[in-house]
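About this split. The held-out portion is used to measure sequence recovery: a designer receives only the structure tokens and must propose an amino acid at every position. Recovery is the fraction of positions where the proposal matches the reference. Here is one held-out target exactly as it appears in the evaluation file.
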């Protein structure tokens, strides 16, 4: 019986780890941003610069450890690593749930968002299963010969890092973000029609004879004039989902003029070049590139071209040095990082709809597409 339970536990944990790793590997930046939320809350902002490295390593380990568990490769060390990792994950998801600071933990990326409670319960179950596997780790035997097992693990390691490099360079293979191709940005900025608003219960606090009393509007006493009003409280009874998919997408000029509506309502093609100005080499890398040719071609066709950044001063200076005269617009960094998963990123819009988008490494594709318009 123990052997059967061990096999079932091993397969379930392995599949879940591989699946979780693959879903997050589609968008490692998403996990890194979620980690930054934890770092900011814990006031360890110095770790933000390393969040992407942590994200890539954690994702790779999930895939590698899942495959190792599936084929029974070096179970002594893998079982220890799995146990330590699931203890860490359970702490994080438990904190996310109990603190109420997070709407989702990022455990399955943006493609499969789950609530903190669901994520925490998942990790508690995994903790039990991995604890069972750890206790019986000596009974697990390799599924293949040592050379084949080693070859599988080498290929798994190469794949887990190569896949993440690819999506970080060329955008996620499966785009689950609200700015994906075909989406209309103005529509995504609106609250969904069938959404549920937050429900609140109103409570009035009054004081009488040195004691405070709380009443709902229906419970107010007849002798209310003998009480002293203290405060009104709005208590959240039911959390709704009346939030737009895209929040904070407001494009401002250097003079702080909001021109978002005019850009999104433009009846022709509009190009938005997203550039994170923390890295000066990004702008330098565009000089003489296929991406620059694509922008020049768009300008020749009289398509408006805007450069979008979380701050504008540094980018404006670099544009002047490069001889570019495209307007530079500011965008809140939270909205910026949701829209741009690569640095730089080029969007082609038509009436606010994302017609197509390209990473900096896809300049030739952008040039070909824009030339054909």
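Reference sequence for scoring:
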């Amino acid at each position: 019986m123990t052997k059967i339970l061990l096999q079932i536990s091993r397969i379930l944990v392995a599949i879940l780890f591989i699946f979780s790793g693959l879903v997050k590997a589609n968008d490692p930046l998403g996990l890194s941003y979620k980690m930054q939320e934890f770092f900011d809350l814990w006031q360890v902002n110095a770790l933000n610069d390393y969040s992407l490295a942590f994200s890539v390593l954690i994702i790779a380990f999930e895939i590698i450890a899942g495959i190792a568990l599936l084929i029974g490769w070096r179970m002594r060390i893998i079982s220890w690593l799995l146990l330590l990792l699931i203890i860490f994950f359970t702490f994080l998801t438990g904190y996310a749930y109990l603190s109420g600071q997070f709407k989702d933990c990022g455990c399955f990326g943006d493609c499969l968002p789950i609530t903190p409670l669901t994520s925490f319960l998942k990790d508690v179950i995994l903790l039990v299963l991995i604890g069972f596997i750890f206790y019986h780790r000596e009974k697990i035997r390799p599924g293949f010969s040592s050379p084949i097992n080693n070859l599988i693990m080498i290929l798994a390691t190469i794949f887990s890092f190569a896949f993440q490099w690819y999506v970080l360079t060329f955008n996620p293979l499966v785009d689950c973000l609200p700015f994906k191709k075909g989406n209309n940005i103005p529509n995504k900025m609106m609250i969904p029609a069938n959404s549920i608003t937050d429900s609140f219960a109103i409570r009035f606090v009054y004081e009488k004879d040195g004691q405070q009393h709380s009443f709902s509007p229906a419970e107010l006493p007849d002798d209310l004039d003998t009480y002293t009003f203290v405060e009104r409280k709005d208590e959240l009874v039911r959390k709704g989902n009346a939030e737009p998919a895209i929040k904070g997408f407001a494009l401002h000029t250097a003079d702080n003029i909001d021109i978002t509506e005019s850009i999104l309502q433009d009846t022709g093609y509009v190009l938005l070049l997203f550039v994170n100005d923390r890295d000066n080499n990004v702008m330098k890398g565009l000089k003489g590139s296929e991406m620059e040719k694509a922008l020049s071609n768009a300008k020749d066709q009289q398509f408006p071209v805007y450069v979008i950044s979380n701050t504008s001063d540094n980018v404006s200076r670099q544009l002047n040095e490069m001889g570019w005269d495209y307007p530079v617009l500011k965008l809140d960094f939270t909205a910026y990082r949701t829209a741009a998963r690569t640095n730089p990123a080029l969007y082609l819009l038509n009436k606010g709809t994302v017609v197509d988008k390209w990473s900096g490494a896809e300049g030739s594709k952008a040039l070909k597409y824009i030339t054909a318009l």
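Annotator remark: The longest strand covers residues 228-238.
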